[in-house]
Amino acid sequence: MKRFLMTMLALASLQWALLPCPALAQATSPVLVTATQETGPNGLPLYRYRIRNGAQRPIVAFMVGSDYFHGTSELNVYPLGWTLENGLPATSATSPAGWNAGVITTEENPYVEVEWRNAGTADIAPGMELGGFGVLAAASSSAYLTGHWTVVFDDGTAGSGTLVSEGNPRIVVTLAQGVAAGASRWALTLKVQNSGAGDAHGVNIGQLLLRTLVGSGGATLVSPALPITVGDLAPGASVDIPLVVDVPASVKKLSLTESGKLVTTGAPSAAFSSAQVFYPKH
Amino acid sequence: MLRFPLVTLCGTFLLGTPAHVLAQTAPRPPVITAVTPGGVGYVEYTSGSSGISARIGRWDTPYDGGQNGPPMPGVEPQGDSTLTIDVDVNDGGTVSFDYTLKTWDGGIWDWFDISLETPTGTIKLVDHLGKPGNDYGTYFSSPRVPLSQALDRWRNQHVRFVFSVVQDGWGDQSQGEISSFAFRQCRVAPLTPLTDADALAFEGGATVDTEHLQANMRAALDCVEGEVEAADGQLNIASAYRPSSYQAHLREVWDKWRLLKDLRDPECQTLREQVRAEFARHQLLPSQRPASPNGRHTTGEAIDMGSSLPLARFLSITAQCGLVRPLPANDPVHFVHQ
């Protein structure tokens, strides 16, 4: 009946909504998926993906914009020309030999994901790399470059992680944990991760600003002292940085903004910046 | 023809074999030696034919403070609710189970960890599963995720699975759940048995329930039925209210079929066939994942329907009766109240 109804009704305008915040990490996957952006026909963004299977089992399916562990899809900019009725145009996705692309929707949800499967002739064996996966999107969207991927292995298990940018390191800082540590004092944990495909050396946080967004007064960083040395981060690696901050009860919402430097293969002094929002539970 | 001599030969071999050699030839599977709730409590577990299932963390009061709202004292413990499962590995094997988390809190405050303590160190199997983002006070549930772990490298040793739900005492509760924890060949745990009476009724075929719609939705549906009939059309209602537990079942079937559809491993073929049959019975679509167990169908606020009338005419009627399609591109049969 559902299929009947879906084909009976025509489609109208697309719905847009805010992307969910990045998810915290689950058990680390030995699979690495790199993403690049090129300019496609009519200047539209063409996103390309390459999978390196470092796991013990062959990969039989691959999804982009798919956060497996949180059960969420992430793409609200759709592949060019995709509709529920007509599916994914052949010109809007590229696939390696033996693989086919499709779009997965979720009932009651505007977000989609792109899925590739093969008929058993083109599994990605352990140790193998495979490129050729691509999506021509209707507009530019960071979710195609920094969102999640999911793979399904031949034994019915799955892996999932964050897309990494090909070539360069990319430092991403997230708030991983918050614990009350006394009256108006909070022990926070920042997770500093290299979400790029290149090595990051000598990462340090030189500045950490606490800004009151809602309320009055100001929060202060108690420890550690600046600069904070993070060190070297290989692709996918992360380090937890403990912070202690004092946040007066009058501050209801604040932002943390970190700026820092790192050394990459091509640049002796590159910079990064990242920000988070924190609601103290007074 | 060949079978009888082999059995005879085997029996002869066994009869003539010393007891200690006999013990080596009969594999000893892993054995659960203890199941222990701990921490700040609020842990329940059961053991049945499909294995151990458990609920970890307090879950009895919805958080009504809204997004990033005030505390609700006394309804959430502060600390970890834990469950440990001790295992003698013996000759090895694989454990598999499903896990999920439901929470009113943000992932920086409450979360679910699963680890395996072994003689060679602790392995984090699930590291800090929480609601994405830093907001708290809104509901989130993760999917039911299958997890498996081979234990062969700790043969004849002891290991311990530790399930821990961290709670911050604010009042926005969290609960982790595991189901079907058992030793099996297939690395994907079986479908979670339905126990809820409403869900079982739906499973039995009574899948269109308009009685439990919200009053405004029932009134709107009456209006649409009258107008479609007056226009000599036929209304087709595919779905209205759905129990949350039934919705969770639909999603689990879809998610497990996604994992097992292209299975090459012979170990899970029986489960694959069970899931395939369930997927077909519910007429699920391969390209559309069912809604979450807290979607608007589960609160009686949505109807999936169409009609034999031209679409523009039908949409005119539904609008006149106060119904809109919030997602015409992705879910064009889904109507909610304006």
Brief descriptors of the model:
A: 282 residues; mainly beta; Immunoglobulin-like; 2 domains; 5-stranded mixed beta sheet; elongated; disordered N terminus; B: alpha+beta; Jelly Rolls; Muramoyl-pentapeptide Carboxypeptidase, domain 2; 6-stranded antiparallel beta sheet; 7 helices
Q: Under the CATH scheme, which class of the largest domain in chain A?
A: Mainly Beta
Q: What are the secondary-structure elements of chain B, in order, as H or E? A: HHEEEEEEEEEEEHHEHHEEHEE
Supply the CATH superfamily name of the largest domain in chain A.
Uncharacterised protein YcnI-like PF07987, DUF1775
Number of domains of chain A: 2
Mean pLDDT score of chain A, rounded?
88
- Largest interface, counted with CB-CB under 8 A? A-B, 69 and 73 residues
Measured between the Cα atoms of the first and last residue of chain B, the distance is 73 Å
What does this structure look like?
The complex is a heterodimer of chains A (282) and B (338). Chain A contains two helices and 20 strands. Chain A has helices at residues 2-8, 143-146, and strands at 31-39, 45-53, 59-64, 66-67, 72-73, 93-94, 99-106, 109-118, 129-136, 148-153, 158-162, 164-165, 171-180, 185-194, 200-215, 220-223, 228-233, 238-246, 251-263, 270-278. Chain A folds into two domains: 2-165, Immunoglobulin-like, CATH 2.60.40; 171-278, Sandwich (Immunoglobulin-like), CATH 2.60.40. The radius of gyration of chain A is 21 Å and the shape is elongated. The longest helix of chain A has 7 residues, at 2-8. In chain A, strands 6-9-2-1-12 form a five-stranded mixed β-sheet. Chain A is mainly beta. Chain B is of the alpha+beta class and 338 residues long. Chain B has two domains: 31-183, Sandwich (Jelly Rolls), CATH 2.60.120; 197-337, 2-Layer Sandwich (Muramoyl-pentapeptide Carboxypeptidase, domain 2). Chain B contains seven helices and 16 strands. Chain B has helices at 3-15, 19-25, 197-203, 215-230, 244-260, 269-281, 311-320, and strands spanning 31-39, 43-48, 51-56, 78-88, 94-103, 111-118, 121-129, 140-141, 145-150, 158-168, 174-183, 235-239, 288-289, 303-307, 323-324, 334-337. In chain B, strands 2, 3, 5, 8, 9 and 11 form a six-stranded antiparallel β-sheet that branches. Chain B has a five-stranded antiparallel β-sheet with strand order 1-4-10-6-7, with no helix packed on it. In chain B, helix 4 (215-230) crosses helix 7 (311-320) and helix 5 (244-260) crosses helix 6. The longest helix of chain B has 17 residues, at 244-260. The chains are: A mainly beta (282), B alpha+beta (338). At the A-B interface, helix 1, strand 5, strand 7, strand 8 and strand 13 of A face strand 7, strand 9, strand 12, helix 5 and strand 13 of B.
